[in-house]
Every structure is written in structure tokens, then in C-alpha cells.
Amino acid sequence: MNTKPTILAAGFAFFVASLVQAQDSIVQLEETTLQLDSVSRDAVIDLFTENDFLDKQIHDMDDLVRLMPGISVSKGDDRWGSSGFNIRGLDEDRVAINVDGVSQGETLKYEGGQAYGYFKGSRSGIDIEALKGVEIVKGADSILSGSGALAGAVNYTTKDAYDFLASVGDDTYFGVQTSYAGVNDEVMGSLTFASRVGDLETLLVYTRRDAHEYRNYDTSGADIEGRGREIPDFQDIEIDSLLVKLNYLATDDQSLGLVFSNYERHSITDTQSFNGGWYSNRIGNDFSETNRIGLTYDLVSGNNIFDTMAIRLNKQSIDFVANTEQHVKFSFGPSFQRDEDRVDSRSFNQDVNQLKIDFSKDIGGDA
Predict the structure, then answer these.
(1) Between these two residues, 188 and 107, which has the higher pLDDT value?
(2) pLDDT at residue number 69
(3) Residue 35 pLDDT exceeds 60
(4) Which of 4, 67, 166, 177 has the smallest set of CB atoms within 10 Å of its CB?
(5) How far apart are CA 199 and CA 184, in angstroms?
(6) Angle formed at CA 200 by CA 195 and CA 203, multiple of 5 degrees
(7) Of 78, 75, 80, the residue nearest 92 (C-alpha)
(8) Rounded to 5, what percent of the chain is helix, strand, coil?
(9) 3-state SS assignment for residue 14
(10) How many CB atoms lie within 10 A of CB 276?
């Protein structure tokens, strides 16, 4: 009787031989050490300062990223404003947004009503006129930028009084800035006041924006109601932004600070592109507000435990209200009919309470 090796047996023998060979070729990897004082990011980082805003004529977030490949402002539609940034194809809650280290909440969408244009959350909680720096991180950065930084992060830093004042002594600064954008007929006006009297520094930045719908420059687009509409829905937008900071130098080594910021966006949209079927005369009347109040404490002390200590206590509230005024008319037999004007209202609130304590200590010796 002849015995022939089967294909299965031959395959098993090859598998065992491969395991033996693999064990002989195992390579011991070198140990990798993470230095706490020099954490490096496996990401691309772009930094913008206030001088960049002026030199490049950046007056909003769209201008900020217009020349950056792979990054854009994410918008569902113009009724709701920006929902954050898109970094390399990922957007909304997969891109962290922070203002002075405080998260700007999450994007909330009422999925059941998206086809009707009822509700989309916004993440527009800061005006660029209140900023002195922006850090854009392209790549995962959850360790340093916080939760949600899967695709990257946008970290804002607000202005301080000393950015406008002399390095020492009493001083006062007052500035006015205005701009116009033809893409949506936006008129912007901003006032800045900064002063130092003794050991107290004060900063106030107020910005007002009035705008309309974004143009698409399609002069032959269909001006009709419903999904076939090819020109933007008519819109009026009002935005108010206020930043107030007080900083008191208690001693040469200690300072106490108070910060308050308020951002309000009110828009009225004639949502003709959603008219049709049961619904007509749809008007969106939407309001969003972001409030933050914070306390800061900084201490410079070369003791055995730490060299510097920074404490940040922040309370932030984000409110969003979407009202859709419309006429509804439909019929399901004689017993179930509707022919009425009504308002569909949807809202959400997000509260953030944050306490951060940062210590630094130089433990390096002479080389």
C-alpha cells in the first residue's frame, strides 16, 4: 500500500517550519523613552499670530485656512454657521477646538430632522478679533489638545492687556478696526481698550458683525423654491463678541486674573430650498450663545517642588435655539388634517466646568 502525503499535511509541515524560522529571526527592539519635558507631536503644526492676521488680511476662520491644503471650515449649511474644521477628511467632533485650553463643546445634530433642515449644532464660540494666536494641529493630538483630537486640533489663545501696553509703568491703548467682505456683504467693527494703572491691567475687546447669505456668483441659477433651488437662501446675520480681562499683580511673583467672554450669533434665514410638499413659508430664526467666566492664578516660586504653578478655573455655557416658523398643510383622510402656521423649536445646552493645575520644574543639571 502506497502512502502519499496530503496537501494538508504538507501545509502543516510548512507552517511549523515557518514558526521555527520566525523564532530564530526575532529582533529585540530598542527601548523608547518619552521625555516629559520635551513631548514631541507626531503631527504637523501651523502657528498664526496677530501679525499674520493683519499681513494676510485674515478677518474670519475661512480666511485663516484658505491657503492650507487639507483643511477647511466645516459647514452643514449657512443657516447654522460653522460646525468646526475639516482636517484631512475628518471634521466636527473628530477635530478638537479649544479657547485658552477650554473645550468648545460638541456638535449636535438632530438626525431625524436633517432632511427638513430643522437643527444642526454650531461650534462658533469665539471671534478672530479676540485672538492673538491660533495653533492648528494636523494629526492625532488627544494627549495635548484633549478629547476629540482624532484628526487634529485648533487651539485658540485670546488677547491680553500687556499685548498692547508698554512693558512697565502706567499705560493706555485704544484701537478701532473695521472691514468689509464682499462674499457675504459683511461689515465688521471692533473696539479694543487696554490699560495698566498701578498693578491692575484691564482689557476690553468688542466686535460686531452684520452679514447676509454667501454669494455663489451663479447669475443664471434657478431662483425657485424646493431642492432644485440653485441660489443661496436669503439670510441676515448679527454677531456680537465681547472679551474682558482683568489681571492684578499681587506681588512680584503672583498674579490673579478674571476673564469673561460672550459670543452671540443671531440669524434669520428664508429657507426657500426646504419649501415644498407639506411645508411652505419656512423661516429659520436661530440664536446661539457661548459664555465663559474664568479665574486664573500664577505663581513663580523656585522651591524644591516646583518653579511655576498655574491654576485655571473656568465655567462655560453654550446655548443653541433653532426656531423654524412654517405653514403646514397635509391630509390623511377626513379625520386627520392640518392647515396651520406653527413654530418647531429645538434647543440644546452644554456646560463645561474645568479646573486645571499645571506645575513646572526644571530638573536638568549641567551637561
Answers:
(1) 188
(2) 86
(3) no
(4) 4
(5) 44
(6) 40
(7) 75
(8) 15, 50, 35
(9) helix
(10) 15
